[in-house]
């Protein structure tokens, strides 16, 4: 088979303490999955359940636990914001999964940032338009190496501290036990609308106190039990 243009290569995330890599497929994101963040976005978490949107796999920037990662300040925005998230990656797929099957589908976890052009997202929301312009753009999803799941880690991830510091100041802090929908619930719910596949990535939502980062800003994002990534913004 001859291709008329070069095939786009998969983005690869490293597996922590391994020479293996994870090829990124689809990137699903969960909106309003921490009650306090839903409130700060002007939503009622009791009335408006979390929902799903997508980022392109090309948005993913492999980050490191050992060294600083750099991303560029994006075009077309004056309100570039951070959102720290627990990331789940799937080693199995399926359709209409039970919670037990959803748990079994999880290969591992990572620390991620859902970077957002908030002004563009807000404008799109007001006009009832899709969010991609505010969410799915180059370098908008720095993600750490993947820590493979084991029984002890699976327990920790249900109540792990998650947080972000901006220029040394703590801006976001919560626990994964505050997720409106648990990881198993998210996967099971997603599998009702999509046949999930090995290689899918799920960003599970962000706690409250999202905010802007400027050129030169330094973000330290972490999830206890996984590690931390340091991401800085260049012009």
Tally of DSSP β-strands: 18
The name CATH uses for the topology is Fumarylacetoacetate hydrolase, domain 2
Strand content: 25-35%
Second CATH tier, the architecture: Alpha-Beta Complex
In round numbers, the mean pLDDT is: 93
- Helicity, in percent? 10-25%
Which sequence of strands runs across the widest sheet?
4-3-15-8-9-12
Number of helices, where a helix is a run of at least 4 consecutive DSSP H or I residues: 6
Overall CATH class = Alpha Beta
Write the H/E string, N to C.
EEEHEEEEEHEEHHEEHEEHEEEE
Largest sheet: 6 strands, mixed
How many separate domains? 1
Distance between the termini: 41 Å
Q: Which spans of ≥5 residues are poorly predicted at pLDDT below 50? A: none
Shape: globular
CATH superfamily: Fumarylacetoacetase-like, C-terminal domain
Give me the secondary-structure topology.
Elements: E1 12-14, E2 21-23, E3 27-31, H1 35-40, E4 51-55, E5 60-62, E6 69-72, E7 80-82, E8 84-90, H2 99-105, E9 106-113, E10 116-117, H3 118-126, H4 132-135, E11 141-143, E12 147-148, H5 151-156, E13 161-166, E14 169-175, H6 183-193, E15 201-203, E16 211-212, E17 218-223, E18 227-234
Parallel strand pairs: 3-15, 5-11, 6-18
Antiparallel strand pairs: 1-2, 3-4, 7-10, 7-16, 8-9, 8-15, 9-12, 13-14, 13-17, 17-18
Helix pairs in contact: 2-6
